[in-house]
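Contributing new complexes? Match this layout with calcium ion.
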Amino acid sequence: MEPETLYTFEVQAFDLAGNLSDFAELTLSTGAPVDAGEDGLVAHYPFEGNADDATPYANHGVVAGDVVFEEVPDRGGMAIKFDGDQDSVLAPNAVQLISDFATVSFWIRVDGQSLQDAEAYVLDFGHWDQRWKISLPQHLRIVWTTNSKNAQFDNAISDMDSKDGNELVKDFWWYVTMVHDGTDDIIYLDGNEVNRKPAAGTLNSTSRKLGMGSNPVDGGQYFNGALDELKIYNRALTTDEVKKLFTSGTTGLKDLISKISSVVEVVYPNPTTERLVVQHQFKGDKSLLLRVFDVSGRQIDAIHFSAAQLASRQISLDVNNYVSGLYSLNFVLAGENMGSIPFIKK
Ligand SMILES: [Ca+2]
Ligand SMILES: [Ca+2]
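Output block (do not edit by hand):
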């Protein structure tokens, strides 16, 4: 069945003796599909003062220990800080997190190491024995471990680190992206591929929780450092998408950038503080809806322009009340989605 569509069913009841009733008609509407703003984004933890999931799935994490949320001056917003002792986050297992392919992407800063553990757990979803985990051994080359099913093995376990020279040097922020694309496991650091290993198969399922900052299965192995902007996708991002995610914080809000760029000449100033001016070539015979999405894909504004208002080839919107961050300006012309253009509010 299609989403947001009315369906009419003919219904017939029967009693225990098998006597049939007359037909009755029943009309039902299917619900709208969940739209997390980016294709395949199934979880997003911005860590802005809590461990809530910003996608409409709302798979919120529960904090344990004395984690703190601290400001990140160079990037803006807040990050979650684990002190390496009894701090962790657990989010419930959820069906949207189970997929054949996956991408896990996040900012990480290592603050310290516990010499008694061979490795600290950064993220874990079903562990090495069921689905995937991301860990940090003493050598500080972050490790991507996946468990997949292929023609030869039901549980093919692959382990790979970020390779010599790609240590997560303490006290610096690094952007890590882990991909399982059905053929390979791939590690990206700051948008660049640093290691790749054959890991054929589809990821296995798990009924365990999504853990952050410690070993959620056996306990302990606490991570000492900070995480930010954790995003999980139910698909393998391409090299270009990983790069875009690193530079802009998003894979693109389903932007049809070429389509929109043929009609919109310039959006300025960008970054902006108060107003955003759109210089365009819309013909002035159709109305326009401008939608504004924040970085998590949530719509935060809608501004309507009549056909007559488009005649001057220039429109503007007031962004004074938006909080600082990355946004996407989405153009809907007479009901048709023309695509989006990103902008930054300072
Ligand atoms: Ca944040
Ligand atoms: Ca603690």
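Reviewers usually confirm one structural detail per submission. For this one: The chain has a mean pLDDT of 90.
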